[in-house]
Amino acid sequence: MDFSQFDSRTAAETPRALHLVHPATGEPLYAGGDESKPCEVLVLGTESRSAQAAIRAAQKAKLKSDKDDERETMEEVQANLVAAAKPLIAGFRNVNRGDAPATSADAEWFLKLNLINGRDGEKAFVEQVMAFATSRANYLGNGSPV
Asked: What is the pLDDT of residues 32-63, one digit of tens each?
C-alpha cells in the first residue's frame, strides 16, 4: 500500500473551497440567492508547511505581547483566531467587498466582520474558516481542489 496518499501536510497546501454559512442562522450563503453561486473561501489546511510557519510567527508575536493577566476578552480571543486564520485564506468566490470581488488581501476584513459569541449554531466567519482548515478530511481525499 502506498502511504504517500496519507500525506496530509502536502495535501493541505492546496486550497479547498469552504461554502460559507450565515453566521446567525447557519443557512448556506449564495451570491444573489443563486444556488449555482455558493459564497466560498479558499482555505489552506493548518497542517500545511506554509500555514504552520505563519501560525508559528503569530504565536511568537503573541508571546512578546502577553500580559500578566491570563484572562482574555472575547475581542482578544477573536484577534488571536484572526491572526491564525488570515494566512490560511488563499482567496474567495462569490464574496464581494462592496461592489468589488474580495481577494486574499481582504482576509483580515472578512475575518473581523463578526465576533465569536460561543452560541451553538452561530459561527463567526473566523470560526468557520478554522474549523474547516483543521479538518484533515477536507484535504485528504474528501475535499475538491480548487
From this structure: 999 999 999 999 999 888 888 877 776 676 66
For residues 30 and 100, give the distance between their C-alpha atoms in angstroms, rounded to a whole number: 16
Give DSSP secondary structure letters for the chain.
--GGGG-HHHHTTS-EEEE-B-TTT-PBPBGGG-TTSB-EEEE--TTSHHHHHHHHHHHHHHHHH--S-----HHHHHHHHHHHHGGGEEEEES-EETTEE--GGGHHHHHTSS-----TT---HHHHHHHHHT-GGGTTTSSPB-
Give the residue extent of every domain in the chain.
Answer: 8-66+76-138
Contact 19, 129 (CB under 8 A): no
